[in-house]
Amino acid sequence: MRPRAIFFDMDDTLLDTSGGVEESWRITAEAFALDVGCTAEELHATIRAQMQSFWKDESAVEHWRTRLHDARRHNIELALSGRGWDASHAPRIAEMYWESQSGRFALFHDSVETLDRLRAEGFRVGLITNGPREMQRDKIARFELERHFDVIVIEGEFGHGKPHPNVFRHAMSTVGAAPGESWHVGDNLYADIGGAQGAGMHATWIHRDRLKMGEDETCVPDRVIGHLAELLAALEL
Questions:
Q1: Per-residue DSSP letters for 200-216?
Q2: What is residue 216's predicted lDDT score, i.e. its pLDDT?
Q3: Among 47, 80, 102, which residue terminates a domain?
């Protein structure tokens, strides 16, 4: 069924927030390796392993999503102390990494044209994003995204985040669309795909040619796309 409303995740769906992660950690590790007393490669690998372990079970650490800066410092402290390194460097490491990485954020080339096309064709369009209010609002303002949406739901404002069904229900109710009339597009299988399907919506997973689906995934999308042109094609636009 052709939808009436289409909702989007923001980070790594419309806005590339991961493309500079490895480079930012490399720069940060090189800057602090001597102070910590290890090689840059060791520091980078140790922090990355701790981060991956921490966020692996998203449901267990979801309370950290609205405190992402705190979570970053916390994980760096755990990484350093776990190797017997001085964890007092963690706040400065976290700050330098964020300054480097956030400066690399960029809209994907197809984001604005897709949103404009959908609005021009009469679709109701919404943004549903997890994360802290201030951080997400800063991104929305920086990239002038607000004008593209009929509703914006931010975890840190709403009080719940994806995959909680109330997040999706609120977005649909705001634009006057039923679950059977609504599609959601996102890159996170747990939060976006599982959450949207739990609210009765059609769920489209976008991988941007850099994500892969594991064989043991519990959330299976209704549609898989690499880029937003495939979404427009599915809508026959």
A1: T-EEEEE-TTT----TT
A2: 74
A3: 102
